[in-house]
């Protein structure tokens, strides 16, 4: 999907159309108010930084350029929060209704009475009518639930829909599995709400850092006056505009990162499949030879430098650098393996949940094969090897034991043993075993998603540090100007 440029939203019509997608009516009156606020803020900053009119106008122009993105991200944030609440309530109600009624149609009808207005109610009504009145479809229930699924674009809702379709076809009592899925939903909702709170704290801290930066950078303009007043120097004025402009940019970029869907899965574009292959196909002998070749140039340079300078520090530095080059393949392999292991820990529970739901209607081998369609990148090649080995010997335990064995993850190995027990028919009651698999997977998913949330929060904290670097730059410029003005006054006074 092509990334949309923020420049296009400078046109009033484009911004209005985009905001309408999120249920917000952007009228000319609201636009005039927004631009009026920008002018007011630019004037305030201009007075505080003692800027001349052209530089105040520059701040206003920067504000106008960024304002559509700020407005759009604010409305998107509210929309995503509303959609999360709606999706969470729908999953809770739909699972409860299906447990009570046992059919997709009755569950949808009961759910529609709870969500009795708005565009989501209309989507539910279309789904109900599709089941009732469609005569030329082999699977009207699946198609009806797809109508609801397309409204949310949420993998969890799609997984629940797949479960209830399988449970309806299989018959019997699915109450235990529904309770576990409801527990999974509650744990997910709690995690998301905690992440929302964490994001709000990060956003607040970014705002505090930006405000503190701009206030600190005002001080040199007021602490020293008279002959040491630097506020009218063009470089001081330009650096103030740059400071304010970059602060605005930091806020917009941070806000964009914080503005995210809470229910849609983010596209995995990290190339973890290639990283997995890099670790799997690692040849230490071959990589060691490459490292030795890379170390030749540093060896020659440092030997030459030692002979020329005859300095022991050069020799020590050379030994450290050459040792690093000789072992860089081991360091790179270790880092890559840790990264892949962490990604497996985060993604394996999602895959296992998909398999657990497929086990309602398929055997283990078929469930694993079907799970390939939505498997995380980091697991694709390992699953291909597993499927190939199972085709060679469907009853062997070794393919299950060898699956991701090199990463020594006890949760993965335990889950694979359970899958083998199910495949060999030694697991007793299959329904109970599937419920146990889902229950264990709930704990794994909770742990994995907490790891993922930690990564997201850690990635956002860089925006808290950037303003301090910006303040350092501005203060250095002002201190240099103060020194120049002081020396000029000193020269003229003599």
Automatic annotation (TrEMBL):
UniProt keyword Hydrolase, yes or no: no
Residue ranges of the TM segments: 31-49, 55-72, 206-224, 230-252, 299-326, 462-487
Domain of life: Bacteria
Keywords attached to this entry: Membrane, Transmembrane, Transmembrane helix
Protein name: Flp pilus assembly protein TadB
Taxonomic source organism: [Clostridium] fimetarium
């Amino acid at each position: 999907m092509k990334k949309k440029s923020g420049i296009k939203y400078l046109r009033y019509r484009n911004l209005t159309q985009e905001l309408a997608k999120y249920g917000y009516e952007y009228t000319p009156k609201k636009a005039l108010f927004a631009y009026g606020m920008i002018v007011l803020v630019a004037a305030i900053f201009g007075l505080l930084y003692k800027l001349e009119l052209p530089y105040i106008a520059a701040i206003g122009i920067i504000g106008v350029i960024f304002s559509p993105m700020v407005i759009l991200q604010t409305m998107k944030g509210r929309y995503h929060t509303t959609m999360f609440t709606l999706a969470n309530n729908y999953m809770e109600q739909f699972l409860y209704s299906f447990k009570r009624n046992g059919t997709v149609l009755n569950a949808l009808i009961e759910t529609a009475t709870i969500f009795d207005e708005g565009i989501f109610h209309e989507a539910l009504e279309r789904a109900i009518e599709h089941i009732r009145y469609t005569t030329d479809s082999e699977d009207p229930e699946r198609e009806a639930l797809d109508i609801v699924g397309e409204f949310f674009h949420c993998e969890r809702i799609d997984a629940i829909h797949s479960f209830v379709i399988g449970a309806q076809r299989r018959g019997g009592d699915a109450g235990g599995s529904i309770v576990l899925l409801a527990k999974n939903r509650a744990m997910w909702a709690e995690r998301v709400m905690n992440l929302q709170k964490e994001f709000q704290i990060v956003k607040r801290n970014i705002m505090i850092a930006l405000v503190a930066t701009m206030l600190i950078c005002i001080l040199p303009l007021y602490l020293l006056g008279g002959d040491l007043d630097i506020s009218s120097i063009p470089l001081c004025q330009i650096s103030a505009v740059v400071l304010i402009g970059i602060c605005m940019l930091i806020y917009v970029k941070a806000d964009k990162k914080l503005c995210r869907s809470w229910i849609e899965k983010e596209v995995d574009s990290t190339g973890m499949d290639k990283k997995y292959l890099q670790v799997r196909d690692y040849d230490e002998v071959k990589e060691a030879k490459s490292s030795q070749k890379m170390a030749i140039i540093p060896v020659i340079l440092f030997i030459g430098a030692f002979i020329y300078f005859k300095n022991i520090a050069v020799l020590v530095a050379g030994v450290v650098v050459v040792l690093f080059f000789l072992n860089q393949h081991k360091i790179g392999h270790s880092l890559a393996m840790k990264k892949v292991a962490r990604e497996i820990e985060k993604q394996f529970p999602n895959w296992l949940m998909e398999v657990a739901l497929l086990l309602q209607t398929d055997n283990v081998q078929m469930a694993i094969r079907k799970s390939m369609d939505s498997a995380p990148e980091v697991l694709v090649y390992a699953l291909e090897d597993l499927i190939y080995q199972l085709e060679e010997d469907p009853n062997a335990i070794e393919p299950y034991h060898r699956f991701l064995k090199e990463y020594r993850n006890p949760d993965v190995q335990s889950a694979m043993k359970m899958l083998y027990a199910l495949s060999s028919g030694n697991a007793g009651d299959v329904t109970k075993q599937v419920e146990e698999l889902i229950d264990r997977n709930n704990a794994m998913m909770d742990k994995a998603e907490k790891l993922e949330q930690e990564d997201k929060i850690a990635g956002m904290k860089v925006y808290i540090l950037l303003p301090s670097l910006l303040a350092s730059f501005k203060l250095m410029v002002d201190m240099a100007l103060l020194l120049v003005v002081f020396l000029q006054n000193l020269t003229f006074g003599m």
